[in-house]
Amino acid sequence: MRAYPTDSSPSRALRILFALPGFHREERGAEIALLSVADELAKGGDAVTVMGSGPERSEKSYDYLQVGAINRRAFERFPMFPPFRSETVWEDATFAWGLARAYEPNAYDVTLTCNYPFTHWVLRRGGSSSPRHVFVTQNGDWPAVNNQAEFRLFDCDGLICINPDYEAANRNQWNTALIPNGIDPARFAGVRPDRAGLGLPAEVRIVLMVSAFAETKRVLEGMRAVAPLPDVHLVVAGDGPLRDATDALAAQILPGRYTRLTLPAEQMPTLYRSSDAFLHMSLLESFGNVFVEAMASGLPIVGHDTPRLRWIVGQRETLCNTEDIAATTVAIRRAIDEGRGAADPRAKDFEWSAIARQYRAFLLSVVAG
Predict the structure, then answer these.
(1) What is the DSSP string of 342-366?
(2) What is the Cα–Cα distance from 231 to 229, expressed in whole angstroms?
(3) 167: three-class secondary structure by DSSP
(4) Are 90 and 174 found together in one domain?
(5) Are 209 and 155 contained in the same domain?
(6) Is residue 8 part of a domain?
(7) DSSP structure class, residue 116
(8) What is the distance between the alpha carbons of residues 48 and 130, in angstroms, rounded to a whole number?
(9) Residue range(s) defining the domain that contains residue 126
(10) Residue 257 domain-assigned?
(11) Which of 28, 125, 175, 332 has the fewest CB neighbours in a 10 Å radius?
(12) At what angle do helices 219-226 and 325-338 cross, to 10 degrees?
């Protein structure tokens, strides 16, 4: 991995395009991360355009162009086959159709996305005459490392790896940079709990999961780990295909001790502050902005113990093998007994302004060739 300076003062403004169907419509990790970087780069003087399927947001510094797309939820019962391997790819295909008509390659120096294959293919359609293209591993590095089927058509001028594992796996094949995701610590400073306003019980311990209802997030396993703790109420903030299965299991093993929420981004700091411990069951999260948000909120963290997670949150006694449900239950109890404290100073290492400077330094190097 090359070392990219944090001082990336421009000799000229870069013309940058960020494209993703969920922009301005979803509050997921990838959307939050890339829009935060786009906003910081625009504030710094670059000409940043964002294309997504949601409505305009007047408070942002970048230029925005709405491109139609059918929400992935509409495809949850559609057949899955290559390259339409998930509802996410079906959504990506509908977005790419509009993107192809709106995208003008000669208007940009560099483009960025984390969606493969269709959005990626549109941004690369001009071949050598297209602008430089950077792929961000927000949803995994599988397009870069897989050489089967449609993945053989992947290529990029730069690969931003959001964890050390991805960077180590790809540095010999691609032009890589190790740049994590981040947060805005100010959003979490001075926030007060408000259980009543969120409709949460007042006199119990609350364990919080912020997660999509998808198999890889293992929300059902998290529920089974909480169930043996009779004084604990589980709150899950998110949505996804397994929402009904999750509600059904909660009715069986957590009657009266489970709440499912979907909240706008501005309310999430209050939800973190209203909780007593944070639980995330994914075995190998690409990065996990939610961990840094929990750190900024002073929550003890229970997660699957891996070098990647320790790289983010440091060494903690509450990290465990979450495939062992009994061990996870013990870790949750330990986290609750530990209790919420002050914001973890490590969270400041992931401030968006610093992350955006690293992005810009890498983009400058990519554009320069």
Answers:
(1) SPPGGGGGGBHHHHHHHHHHHHHHH
(2) 6
(3) helix
(4) yes
(5) no
(6) no
(7) T
(8) 17
(9) 15-182+351-368
(10) yes
(11) 125
(12) 70
Mean pLDDT of the chain: 93
Report pLDDT digits (tens) over 296-342.
999 999 999 999 999 999 999 999 999 999 999 999 999 999 988 98
Measured distance CA(176)–CA(168) in Å, rounded: 9
**Beta partners for 108?**
none
- Residue 137's Cα: distance from chain center in Å? 10
Q: Do 247 and 315 fall into the same domain?
A: yes
Taking residues 181-210, report their average pLDDT.
94
The pLDDT score that the predictor gives to residue 125 is 81
At 119-146, the pLDDT tens digits run: 999 999 866 678 999 999 999 999 999 9
Q: Is residue 5 part of a domain?
A: no
* CATH classification at residue 147: 3.40.50.2000
Could you tell me where the DSSP H helices lie in the chain? 29-43, 87-102, 118-123, 142-145, 164-170, 195-198, 219-226, 243-253, 268-273, 289-296, 307-313, 325-338, 352-368
Is residue 7 assigned to a domain? no
Q: Are 163 and 245 in the same domain? A: no
Beta strand residue intervals within 87-218, DSSP E: 110-113, 132-136, 158-161, 176-178, 205-210
Q: Are residues 43 and 143 in the same domain?
A: yes
- Give the C-alpha separation, 159 to 179, whole Å: 10
